[in-house]
Amino acid sequence: MMNELTLLQAMRDKTPVATDAAVEDGRRKLLHHIDPSVPIARPAHRSRTARRVGIISLATAALVATLVAGDVLGPTGWRGAATAQAAQVLNEAAQTTIKTADPVVNPGQYLKIQSSNLWGTFSTDEDGKQYQWLDTENMTMYIPANRSDEWVWERSGRIPTVFFDEASREHEQTLQYDGPKEHVLRGPNGAFYGSAPDQSGFPSPEYLASFPRDPYLLLNNIFKKTIGHGQSIDGEALVFIADLLRAGVVPADLRAALYKAAALIPGVTVTDEQATLNGRKGIAIGRVEEVSHTRQDIIIDPQTGLLIGERQVLTQAQGIMPAGTAITLTTIETSVSDTAP
Questions:
Q1: Alpha carbon distance 252, 201 (integer Å)
Q2: Could you tell me whether strands 294-300 and 150-155 are parallel, antiparallel, or unpaired per DSSP bridges?
């Protein structure tokens, strides 16, 4: 079955000179292939609905038009890839992680996922003055061998931890929080907040099995899932990979494929050869978003190929938060437990 990258190749071969009309026609053909609800023919007039669709698809249209007009192709070799150093780290991690056994959860046991999290927090008082600080929260998720059984989620609650000025510290102390700071949630199939199944945000085995294991097809799949979201298609692809990995339930073969897919993303570099998260050391691989002046990192243990964690780091000061501040951070550690709280 022809994918959109093959379609781009075909359009390129048939259109040596990318005129404005050719770019528009090529864009519509590609969008139709991705989403059949998008008509191939250009409409004679733009209705109110058509304008709304056009606004929603603006990022997608701009991307596709650029690809067609720029005579570029999908992975690999189209707009570059990760640096040689980053690609080496990622590909070596892919080979290593395959050899690292995934936890085996037998009936009656739980997959125990411990995470330490950090978030940038922003608040505004009644006079419009803004305050910033960092919260931390420790969590432990217990996923039973039979996912339809009761899950248990221990949460410490968000704890204000890092302040950059005294005004923010004093403002935080005036805030009133709803609900307990420390709590334990329970729910069958991860339905912690209602009756719908698996609302935990942890991907299901069926969802994980749906991803291709070929890194080129996998990255193509991720591009289709994330196109039109985030600040850039490449940056959003790396964020998607980081979000999936940090769940702590990705099997070894998919972890390896995700690492190899990350090695195909332009702009990905080694950002820290001695990154330390909660006392654990690894190599940070990341990519900078120039618009928001942030960098998305994934930190990998080179000895095991396992993800230590992920973070988003400021590359320029924002408000009172200095450059180099991690405004989101998650560390992950998985094991098997015979019991849950």
A1: 20
A2: unpaired
